[in-house]
Amino acid sequence: MTQRSSEFAPTPIAPKLVLEGPLAALLEWQSMAQGAYSANTLRAQKADGAIFQAYCESVGEAYLPAKPHTVRGFIAAQVKAGKKPATIQRYVATISRVHTAAHLLNPCSSEAVRLGLKKMGRETSARQDQAHPLNWKDIKEFIDTAGDGLRADRERAMLCVAYETLARRGELVALEVRDIDFHPNGTGQALIRRGKTDPIGQGRVAYLSRTTVRWLKVWLDHARVEEGCYFVD
User: What is the pTM of this model?
Assistant: First the structure.
């Protein structure tokens, strides 16, 4: 007589894996970090951690917890690979945060790592290449040569708004019709509701010149934007 599972003899349920120690602490921190950091920041930290983990595996060293000399070797390897000092410092900050979150001794607070960073600073140029900032002469030249059509109208308006409000790309594309007011004298103002430097969303108001308002109205008229996001495709 064969045995069959029934309500009186249910199939045993496999026990769930219970995480303990540093990994459990790290997972708990990741859960609490949701909302405290932007999604982009959390993605960057995850990518940084993966880069450090790959290095540790390539040299046969543990990455959690990592030893000070391992982090120092990682710094030297990144310098040799041509990474910018600011990028390497971000990597080290991520390694530090992960160890702190996992309740482990932080290797980045050691003298070995501190001196490794100091050595990096002496061996590399701390000044990074920066894009040439646009001035009004550059923008006027673009306005005069952008051509015709919706794309040109949109780019003129966006460039003028970006120049006068100092808004980032994410702030620009988030602008809505309700956020911009036109004044009787031909000028205007834009409400930048939230950005990277304003994580709690207090917002700020920026002045718009007559030239910017004129190109905004051209874009609105030609694209027939009446509500929602200003710079829709």
Answer: 0.47
Distance, in Å, from the CA atom of 224 to the CA atom of 67, rounded to the nearest integer, reads: 60
In sequence order, what E strands does 28-132 have?
none
- How far apart are the C-alpha atoms of 98 and 27, rounded to whole Å? 10
- Per residue in 129-184, pLDDT (tens digit) is 555 566 778 888 888 887 888 888 888 888 888 888 888 888 888 888 888 888 88
For the chain, give the longest Cα–Cα distance.
95
Residue 98 reports pLDDT greater than 90: no
- pLDDT greater than 90 at residue 31: no
Quote the CA–CA distance of 212 and 155 in Å, as a whole number: 12
Phi, psi of 152, deg, nearest 5: -65, -40
Q: Which two tokens stand for residue 153?
A: 């109208």
∠ CA(91), CA(167), CA(222), 5° rounding?
130
Contact assessment for residue 211 and residue 160, using Cβ atoms and an 8 Å cutoff: yes
Strand partners, 190: 180, 206
Residue 96 CB neighbour total at 10 angstroms: 16
For residues 150 and 146, give the distance between their C-alpha atoms in angstroms, rounded to a whole number. 11
Residues linked to residue 191 through DSSP beta bridges, in sequence order:
205
Evaluate the CA torsion angle 101, 107, 111, 117 in order and state its sign. Answer: negative
Residues 113 and 119: their CA atoms lie apart, in Å, by 10
Check if the beta carbon of residue 72 is closer than 8 Å to that of residue 38: no
